[in-house]
TrEMBL record:
Catalytic activity: UTP + L-glutamine + ATP + H2O = CTP + L-glutamate + ADP + phosphate + 2 H(+)
Native species: Glossina morsitans morsitans
Top EC class of this enzyme: ligase
UniProt entry keywords in alphabetical sequence: ATP-binding, Glutamine amidotransferase, Ligase, Nucleotide-binding, Pyrimidine biosynthesis
Record EC number: 6.3.4.2
Task performed by this protein: Catalyzes the ATP-dependent amination of UTP to CTP with either L-glutamine or ammonia as the source of nitrogen. Constitutes the rate-limiting enzyme in the synthesis of cytosine nucleotides.
Single GO cellular component term: cytoophidium
Pathway assigned in UniProt: Pyrimidine metabolism; CTP biosynthesis via de novo pathway; CTP from UDP: step 2/2
UniProt keyword Ligase present: yes
Ligase among keywords: yes
InterPro entries, A to Z: Class_I_gatase-like, CTP_synthase, CTP_synthase_N, GATASE, GATase1_CTP_Synthase, P-loop_NTPase
Name of the featured protein: CTP synthase
Length: 624
C-alpha cells in the first residue's frame, strides 16, 4: 500500500481537498485504484451536529455517516463510494482509546498521546486503506488529507502519528504533498514566498519533509518564484507545483499533469503504470474541461435557502446543478436567495433587499429549494414554492423543500390555512409534516433517517421515473427527521399533488410531482449526493432541461440528449432559452413590482453577495 499525505500551510481553506482529489484523479486515470481518508482534528465525533456556517454542508455517505464535505469531492472526482471510517476525527480517536482503557486493554499502563493516541491513528489508517471503495477491488494508493494547517494545536497528535508512520511503512511507500498559499499583496504586486517558507520550515520541524510543494495563488507564478521556493524549502524545482485560480476545477488535474506530477509519483512511490494507460489518461477530464470552456448559452437557477451567505453550505447542490447544466450544454448562473428576505415582514424592515431578492427570483429560469433545519426562513421557502406553482416555474425541492411544497399546497389549495410542520409548530391544527418517533432518541448526533435507502415508484406515469430510466425503484441517500403526514396524502393527491415514490413500507412519501405543471418535483431524499460530473442526478437534469424548455423533447427522445446537445456546439436550435426577463415572467409577481415603484429595476441582481457565476464563467468555482 502506498500513502500520500496532503497537508496545508499558511491558511485553512487553501484547496487541500481539490488538490487531494486531483492527485487521486491522476493516479486513477493511469489505472491505479485509489482510496481517500479525510482527517478532521476537531473533537466532534462527526460533522452531523455542525451548523453549515462552521464547515459547510454535512455530506452523507451510503452507510449513513455524516462527514466533511471534502469526502464529497473525493467521491465525485474518483467515482468511488467511501465509508464511515474514511473520515477520522479527534473525537473518534479519543473515544476509541478511552473505551479500550475502560475495558482494561492497556493492562494498567498510563494512557498517553504518545504512543497510544498516535498508534490508534496509524492503525486506523492502515486498516481503512485496505477497504475496497469500488467494485470490491483493494486500493493500491491511499490519499490522506490532514485538515487545518500545520501548527494547529488540534492537529499535533496526527502530525506526530505521520512522523512515526513514514518509518512504519518505509520511505518508498509514503510521500508528503504540502499545499501552501503564495499571496500577492496589492501594495507590491509580486508573489511573496515567505509564508510558504515558514510553513515548510514548521512542517520539517515536526519531522515531515514535503516531497511536493503545491503553491496556491490567484495568478500564475513565474519560474523565478518556483526556484526561490526550491532553494529555501530544500526541494527540487520540479517538485514545486503552482496551481493558480482556474475557471473550473476540471482544469486542476490537467494542470498538475502538465507539471509532471504523474511521473514524479511513479518514480517516488515506485508505481507500476502501463504505457498504454499513461497515454490515454485524463481523456475524460480533458473533454469535460473543453466542454466547460465552450459553453455560450446560459441558464439561471435560483437557490432559495437559509444558509446562502456561505456557499459551501450547498456545495453538493451547486455541483449537481453544474453537472446537469454541463451535460445539457449550458453555462450555469446561480442566484443565491436568502429565503427569509422573501417574507412579507422584510418589505417593511428592509424593502431594498426585499425587492432585490424578488427580482432575482423573477429573473431565474428555475428554482431549487434545498434542505435545512429550524424555523428561520421556512416561510420564505413556502412563498417560493407558491410562486413557482402559480407561475409554472420549474421547481426542485429537496428534503425540507419537499415539506415546504406540501405545506404550501395544503394552505393554498386545500385551504388548510394553519397547515405547518411540527418541527416549527408542535401544536399546529393541521400537522402536514410530522416527526418520526424512532429518530427522536433525545440525542442530536447520528439519530436521523440517514444513508442510502430504497424508493419504490408507483405504477402511474411519472416524470421523475422516466428521468431515472423507468426503474421499479432507486436507491438514494437521506438525511431527515420529519416526514409527510400519511393522514393528509389522499387529500393532497385528490387535488393534483401526486406522491409517485414511497419507501419500502409504502408509508413514507419520497417523491412528489404536481400535475399540469412543466416541472414541479420534490424529493425527501438528497439526490445531489450521488451526482457525478459524467452522470448528473436525474432530478437535477430534469430541472435544468425544464428551465431551458427542453424537458418534453428529452422525454420524447427516450430520455436521451440529442447529438447537438452533447456536442460542444453553441447552437440554440434544439433548446431555446430566453435570457431576458419578459412580461410573462413578471406577471405572477405584479403586486411586488407595484410596491417597488422602480426599486426593482434599479436593484437588478448585480450584488456580488446575491449571485455567483459558476463553471467557466468565474473564479468562484475554481480552487479556493
Amino acid at each position: 500500500m502506498k500513502y500520500i499525505l496532503v497537508t496545508g500551510g499558511v491558511i485553512s481553506g487553501v484547496g487541500k481537498g481539490v488538490i487531494a482529489s486531483s492527485l487521486g484523479t491522476l493516479l486513477k486515470s493511469c489505472g491505479i485504484e485509489v482510496t481517500s481518508i479525510k482527517i478532521d482534528p476537531y473533537i466532534n465525533i462527526d460533522a452531523g451536529t455542525f451548523s453549515p456556517y462552521e464547515h459547510g454542508e454535512v455530506y452523507v455517505l451510503d452507510d449513513g455517516s455524516e462527514v466533511d464535505l471534502d469526502l464529497g469531492n473525493y467521491e465525485r472526482f474518483l467515482d468511488i463510494t467511501l465509508h464511515r471510517d474514511n473520515n477520522i476525527t479527534t473525537g473518534k480517536i479519543y473515544k476509541l482509546v478511552i473505551e479500550a482503557e475502560r475495558r482494561g486493554e492497556y493492562l494498567g499502563r498510563t494512557v498517553q498521546v504518545i504512543p497510544h493516541i498516535t498508534d490508534a491513528i496509524q492503525e486506523w489508517i492502515e486498516r481503512v486503506a485496505q477497504d475496497p471503495v469500488r467494485d470490491n477491488i483493494t486500493p493500491e494508493v491511499c490519499i490522506v488529507e490532514l485538515g487545518g494547517t500545520i501548527g494547529d494545536i488540534e492537529g499535533m497528535p496526527f502530525v506526530d502519528a505521520f512522523r512515526q508512520f513514514q518509518f512504519r511503512v518505509k520511505r518508498e511507500n509514503f510521500c508528503v504533498a504540502h499545499v501552501s498559499l503564495v499571496p500577492s499583496p496589492s501594495s507590491t504586486g509580486e508573489p511573496k514566498t515567505k509564508p510558504t517558507q515558514a510553513s515548510v520550515k514548521e512542517l520539517r520541524g515536526f519531522g515531515l519533509s514535503p516531497d511536493l510543494i503545491v503553491c496556491r495563488s490567484e495568478e500564475p507564478i513565474g519560474i523565478e518564484v518556483k526556484e526561490k521556493i526550491s532553494n529555501f524549502c530544500h526541494v527540487a524545482p520540479d517538485q514545486v507545483i503552482c496551481v493558480h485560480d482556474l475557471s473550473s476545477i476540471y482544469h486542476v488535474p490537467l494542470l498538475m499533469e502538465q507539471h509532471g506530477v504523474i511521473e514524479f509519483l511513479k518514480e517516488r512511490l515506485q508505481l507500476s503504470i502501463r504505457p498504454e494507460k499513461r497515454e490515454n489518461c485524463l481523456q475524460r477530464w480533458k473533454s469535460l474541461a473543453r466542454r466547460s470552456e465552450k459553453l455560450h448559452k446560459q441558464v439561471t437557477i435560483a437557490l432559495v435557502g437559509k444558509y446562502t451567505k456561505f456557499k459551501d453550505s450547498y456545495d453538493s447542490v451547486i455541483k449537481a446543478l453544474q453537472h446537469a447544466a454541463l451535460q445539457v450544454g449550458y453555462k450555469l448562473k446561480l442566484n443565491f436567495i436568502y429565503s427569509e428576505l422573501l417574507e412579507s415582514e422584510t418589505l417593511t424592515e428592509d424593502p431594498s433587499n426585499y425587492h432585490k431578492v424578488w427580482q432575482l427570483l423573477c429573473e431565474s429560469d428555475g428554482v431549487v429549494v434545498p434542505g435545512g433545519f429550524g424555523s428561520r426562513g421556512i416561510e420564505g421557502k413556502i412563498i417560493a414554492c407558491k410562486w413557482c406553482r402559480e407561475n409554472k416555474r420549474p421547481l426542485l425541492g429537496i428534503c425540507m423543500g419537499l415539506q415546504a411544497a406540501v405545506i404550501e399546497f395544503a394552505r393554498n389549495v386545500l385551504n388548510l390555512k394553519k397547515a405547518n410542520t411540527t418541527e416549527i409548530d408542535p401544536t399546529t391544527e393541521h400537522p402536514l409534516v410530522v416527526d418520526m418517533p424512532e429518530h427522536h432518541s433525545g440525542e442530536m448526533g447520528g439519530t436521523m433517517r440517514l444513508g442510502k435507502r430504497k424508493t419504490i415508484f408507483k405504477g402511474e406515469l411519472s416524470i421523475v421515473k422516466q428521468l431515472y430510466g423507468n426503474p421499479q425503484s432507486v436507491d438514494e441517500r437521506h438525511r431527515h427527521r420529519y416526514e409527510v403526514n400519511l393522514k393528509y396524502v389522499n387529500q393532497l393527491e385528490e387535488q393534483g399533488m401526486r406522491f409517485v415514490g414511497v419507501d419500502e413500507s409504502g408509508e413514507r412519501m419520497e417523491i412528489v410531482e404536481l400535475q399540469n405543471h412543466p416541472f414541479y418535483v420534490a424529493t425527501q431524499y438528497h439526490p445531489e449526493y450521488l451526482s457525478r460530473p459524467l452522470k448528473p442526478s436525474p432530478p437535477f437534469l430534469g430541472l435544468i432541461l425544464a428551465s431551458v424548455k427542453g424537458l418534453s423533447k428529452y422525454i420524447a427522445r427516450g430520455c436521451h440528449l440529442s447529438p447537438r446537445q452533447m456536442s460542444d456546439a453553441s447552437s440554440d436550435e434544439e433548446i431555446q432559452m430566453t435570457t431576458k426577463i419578459n412580461t410573462s415572467k413578471l406577471n405572477g409577481h405584479s403586486e411586488h413590482l407595484q410596491q417597488a415603484n422602480g426599486c426593482i429595476v434599479n436593484g437588478a441582481g448585480s450584488s456580488s453577495e446575491a449571485e455567483l457565476i459558476t463553471a467557466s464563467n468565474g473564479k468562484s468555482n475554481g480552487v479556493a
